[in-house]
Specification:
2 domains; DNA polymerase, domain 1; mainly alpha; 274 residues; three-stranded antiparallel β-sheet; 13 helices
Length: 274
């Protein structure tokens, strides 16, 4: 990796405190750009970058790489590595509603967990924790036992620079207490495997997939969707999710509109004619 990418990695990790997986993805995309032509990255111009991006047809892939490139050149300009910055607009992608699971489906899914074992208690508690807190899986797996205090969760490893405090529902706290009482907790991490080591991202994915058929991130969407459908203020949901911009949270208003539409079609006598 070049010196400029090493400096950028330190900026992302230390100054912006981004999730390690995000940092890894940014560096991977920029390494591809670096290998695309012999000139140093700081000498690339907009046309060079557009030529590089032209090989990617998928708009979501394109936008992910654009995000890394735009942040990188903004960093370079701020630190005087380049005289000008480069800012390329994102490609337009069709808006898709986030997938979410309703309360009844979640409770039905976890009702089949065998809670006579430590692993069953952990799986049950983890799913309730994710649904009750709206935490990203990276945040959940970084949670220490000391981060839960008197019904509140302090998320210290949030995406970007923002730390937040989130209330956790009593039913989830009770499940966590039962799980911890059965665990041999040599680790300070809240979520551990059968060896008492911090739970991996892959294992967490297997847990939610096994009982609910979804990824852990869908439970974050389910948390937000439940709040919006229950009438929560959008800015409160933004704060709970740790979104830097309200624009990111606004996608959940589409879920509310769809819910209202489905309710009218189902219950109003003219609904069938719509």
């Amino acid at each position: 990796m070049s010196d400029i990418l090493e400096a950028f990695e330190e900026y992302l990790s230390v100054t912006r405190v981004l999730d390690p997986l995000t940092v890894e993805a940014y560096l991977r995309d920029l390494s591809q750009l670096e290998a695309f032509a012999p000139e140093p990255l700081t000498r690339r111009n907009t046309q060079d970058i557009l030529t590089f991006l032209a090989q990617f047809d998928n708009k979501r892939t394109l936008n992910r790489k654009l995000s890394a490139i735009n942040v990188f050149f903004d960093f370079c300009h701020r630190h005087d590595f380049t005289a000008t910055t480069i800012k390329i607009p994102m490609a337009r992608t069709p808006k898709t509603l986030p997938k979410y699971v309703g309360y009844d489906a979640i409770m039905a899914g976890i009702s089949g967990i065998d809670r006579s074992t430590f692993l069953g208690l952990r799986d049950y508690a983890l799913i309730l924790f994710l649904y009750a807190s709206g935490a990203r899986i990276s945040e959940a797996l970084s949670t220490q036992r000391s981060d839960l205090h008197e019904g509140w969760l302090t998320i210290r490893y949030a995406k970007g620079e923002k730390e937040r405090v989130v209330p956790v529902a009593p039913v989830a706290l009770e499940a966590i207490d039962t799980y911890l009482a059965a665990a041999d907790m040599r680790s300070s991490a809240l979520w551990v495997n059968y060896r008492g080591e911090p739970l991996s991202r892959v294992s967490a994915y297997k847990i939610t997939q096994k009982y609910l058929g979804v990824s852990p991130h869908v439970l974050r969407h389910s948390f937000a969707s439940a709040l919006i459908l229950g009438g929560a203020d959008l800015r409160v949901v933004q704060e709970l999710l740790g979104h830097a911009s309200l624009v990111t949270t606004q996608i959940y208003t589409h879920i509310e509109r769809r819910h209202l539409e489905e309710t009218v079609y189902h219950y109003h006598p003219l609904g069938d004619s719509a």
